[in-house]
Design a protein that fits this description.
Layout: H1 3-13, H2 20-35, H3 44-53, H4 59-86, H5 91-107, H6 114-126, H7 134-158, H8 164-184, H9 189-208, H10 219-237, H11 244-271
Helix pairs in contact: 2-3, 2-7, 3-7, 4-5, 4-6, 4-7, 5-6, 8-9, 8-10, 8-11, 9-10, 10-11
């Protein structure tokens, strides 16, 4: 069966929204679990968690989260190894160890890795009796994490990478149609607001991943289209004014802004 048809069927019958990111995470996790069957990975848990960290909504965020995960694991492994040798076992000192891990993660701006960093640190401290040395254990858990992160990054970057520009143009088209409908039905405004919020998020993602986009499109053009949608929302909200002059002013602005949006949208469609 065609994979695209399969994905389409699953999306159709699923009670929740299933996007390409879920399928890519499945692919990445399968690859990591397969590698875990070889001597390359010693502990599949850390590798698989690393893979999930490497599957973010943008390629740039994947690098950020993935590298943070590797660094966090390294810190947890090192501190766990250090404190296990110092034999810190009293409750105040254990609390201090956890506080130090949080501080280290904060200084390195990897707060998203605090939980797993603490987990590994305590795991080493409270389970020092292993077949391999503490130093070996700390090193190989960091290596396991790195392998998982790399798999996640490669899958996210090269298998159906996020096409933020296409999503942006699609959302602009939706808002353009909603703008036309909102002129006749003011009840469409909450839907317009919801789609506008989604548009802003997509635009932010595009800006984060801009260096990975090969389309020849200017940021100024995209910003103009996004700003036009924000302006439309503002004028639609104020169209209910009872004062005829004020209402006419906003209607005039809506018509001019709609024309600007449609012209910019047609240019973007030609690029995408």
């Amino acid at each position: 069966m065609d994979i695209k048809k399969l994905i389409s069927k699953i999306k159709h019958y699923s009670p929740i929204s299933i996007g390409m990111r879920i399928f890519k995470t499945w692919i990445a996790a399968t690859l990591t679990a397969t590698i875990a069957l070889t001597p390359i990975i010693g502990n599949p848990f850390y590798a698989l968690v690393g893979t999930v960290f490497g599957m973010q909504n943008t390629v740039s965020n994947s690098f950020k989260m993935g590298i943070g995960r590797i660094v966090g694991t390294g810190i947890g492994a090192f501190l766990g190894f250090l404190f296990a040798h110092l034999e810190l076992s009293s409750p105040p000192l254990i609390g201090l160890v956890i506080a130090l891990v949080i501080i280290f993660c904060g200084l390195l701006k990897i707060q998203h890795s605090i939980l797993i960093t603490i987990t590994l640190c305590l795991l080493i401290m409270y389970n020092p009796d292993r077949g391999d040395s503490l130093l070996d254990y700390a090193f190989f858990r960091t290596l396991d994490t790195a392998v998982g992160v790399i798999v996640g990054l490669l899958v996210n970057r090269f298998i159906a990478p996020p096409n933020h520009l296409k999503s942006l143009v699609t959302e602009l088209d939706i808002l353009s149609k909603l703008a036309q409908e909102s002129l006749k039905d003011s009840n469409k405004l909450p839907e317009f607001e919801k789609e506008l919020s989604l548009l802003v998020n997509i635009h932010n993602n595009y800006q984060v991943d801009e260096k990975y986009d090969n389309h020849d499109v200017s940021n100024e053009k995209l910003r103009r289209a996004v700003d036009a949608c924000s302006d439309l929302y503002f004028h639609f909200k104020n169209c209910s004014e009872t004062d005829k002059a004020i209402k006419d002013y906003h209607l005039d602005k809506i018509n001019k802004t709609r024309t600007l949006l449609e012209n910019t949208l047609n240019e973007l469609k030609g690029i995408v």
